[in-house]
Each structure stands twice: as structure tokens, then as C-alpha cells.
Amino acid sequence: MADPHQFFDDTSSAPSRGYGGQPSPGGMGYSSPSASHEAAFLADPMSNMAMAYGSSLAAQGKQLVDKNIDRFIPVTKLKYYFAVDTVYVGKKLGLLVFPYLHQDWEVQYQQDTPVAPRFDINAPDLYIPAMAFITYILVAGLALGTQDRFSPDLLGLQASSALAWLTLEVVAILLSLYLVTVNTDLTTIDLVAFLGYKYVGMIGGVLVGLLFGKIGYYLVLGWCCVSIFVFMIRTLRLKILAQAAAEGVPVRGARNQLRMYLTMAVAAAQPLLMYWLTFHLVR
User: Fold this and answer.
1) Where do the TM regions start and end (predicted)?
2) What confidence tens digit (pLDDT) does each residue in 239-266 have?
3) Are 130 and 162 contacting, i.e. CB atoms less than 8 angstroms apart?
4) CA trace torsion 127, 168, 198, 178 (10° rounding)
5) DSSP for the chain?
């Protein structure tokens, strides 16, 4: 029995509270409420089932999103169009400016799969069109700045206008191919790549125009317009007309004539758009 005159209890006989005793998991001799609730949650079979069901739904949602994206934009194939190197970029730029001496325009295949662009100069790529588009916007901003006409709104209008025309081109070509019933291996990304090559000539024309005035602009842009016309004719005819020949379509048949007109129209639209998107940048 405790002494009524003792101020403190004698705790030396309690091993759990001595210095040699083990502390409780919660620290300071108290149990952790959060640890106990977490253990109870994990021990609950309904909670485990809910977690498993949520993970299953997340995985199914990811697969559904990836499937729908690949239906319109084959993201998994984009790596092919960016498989370039410095040698390929240099040769491709030379081909875009001087396509007249190039003879072999066939795309190389390996086991029914086109080889990467860095191994074939005729293969379409997205690296040059993407970089050329960004450079074109920067050069347009430089041209507007030298004329004291620069503003973020005007530069944004320049970029959106170029994108709108590119989108309109792709849609028009796909619709035309559908109307004339052309079975071709041209994809939407291929069209974006081929149509994006015109920005290279546009950059050259604007830069020379800033240095030497309108005369230099018209000379360089005129050369690049003729070059891109020849490039598109020789490239698209293998994609559209060669497929028609493989299907046994007569050379002078009505459908083949429509395909030839379509190829000519796509090639002729490139110089017109090159002039339309750059003439106001040089004064």
C-alpha cells in the first residue's frame, strides 16, 4: 500500500517504463492512431478489393486512350519520322534545293518496312518540316521587327495562318484521294512531311529578301518554288501513279488522268502558298 506522505509513485518495478524498456511504436509510450487505422484499412478485404478494382479501371482507361489516339495519330510510328542524323539533314536540304540531278526516287524497304530516314534520303521525315516551321516563325518575327511592325498578336496570326493552310492542304488532299478512289500507302503523316518541306524555301526567300531587298527575295523564292514543284512531282507520282500502274489501270484511262491532275495540283499549290505566306514580310 502506498505511503500517503509520498509525493511520487515508485515506478522502478515497471520494466515497460524504465530506461531499458522498449518504446512503443507510436513513441512516448503511446500508440500511433494513424498506424492503427492504416493497419485496419489494409486488413479490410473490401478495401483491398476496391484498390484492385481501381487499378484495373486505370489500366483499362490507359489502354482505351492509347487505342483512340493511335487511331487518328499513330504515336508509335512517330519515332520513324524523327530517326534522322546530320548527314541525312544535309543531303535532304540539298535535295530540296537542287532536285534536278537526283535520279533514284524510290523509297527503300527492308522486309516490307521502309528503312529509317537516316538510311534513305527519299524517305519522308518530320524533323526538317518541324524545325523549318519553327524557324519560319522566328524569321517572320525578325522581318516584322526590322519593319517596326512586330507584335505578339501579329506573330501569332502568322503562325496560326501557316498551320491553318497546312491543315487545309492535308484535308483537301485526303478528300481528293478518296473521291478519285486512289489506293495508296500515303499516310496523313507522310502528307504533313511532304507539305512541310516548302518552309525551307520560304525561309531562304525571306532571309535573302531582308539582306538584298525584293530582287533577292524574288530570285531565291522563285528558284525554291521551281525546286519544290519538281520535288513534289517526282515524289508523289511514285506514291499515286505507281500504285495505279500496279493495279493495272490504263495509262490513258480517266481515273489515271485524274490522279495525274491531282499530283500536278498538289505540286502547283506549293509555290502559291510559299509566295502567299511570305510576300508581306519583305518590303
Assistant:
1) 126-145, 157-179, 191-212, 218-237, 258-277
2) 887 655 445 454 556 667 888 889 999 9
3) no
4) 80
5) ---TT-SS---TT-GGGSTTSPPPTTSTT---HHHHHHHHHHH-HHHHHHHHHHHHHHHHHHHHHHHHHHHHS-GGGHHHHT---HHHHHHHHHHHH--SS----PPPBSSSSBPPGGG-TTS--SHHHHHHHHHHHHHHHHHHHHTT---HHHHHHHHHHHHHHHHHHHHHHHHHHHHTT------HHHHHHHHHTHHHHHHHHHHHHHHHHHHHHHHHHHHHHHHHHHHHHHHHHHHHHHHHHHTT--TTSHHHHHHHHHHHHHHHHHHHHHHHTTGGG--
Mean pLDDT of all residues in 9-17: 50
Burial, 245: exposed, middle or buried (Cβ in 10 Å; 0-12, 13-18, 19+)?
Answer: exposed
At residue 276 the predicted structure's pLDDT band, cuts being 50, 70 and 90, is very high
Q: List the grid coordinates of 177.
A: 484521294
- Provide the sign of the torsion angle of the four alpha carbons 146, 151, 152, 158, taken in this order: negative
The pLDDT of residue 17 is above 80: no
Q: pLDDT tens digit string along 118-133?
A: 999 999 999 999 999 9
C-beta of residue 114 within 8 angstroms of C-beta of residue 108: yes
pLDDT of residue 62 exceeding 50, the answer is yes
| Alpha-carbon span 134 to 139, nearest angstrom | 9
Residue 31 has pLDDT above 60, yes or no: no
pTM: 0.73
CA atoms within 13 A on the CB side of 23: 8
User: For position 191, what pLDDT does the model report?
Assistant: 94
Q: Using CA atoms, how far apart are residues 8 and 2, in angstroms rounded to an integer?
A: 10
Mean pLDDT of 63-77: 62
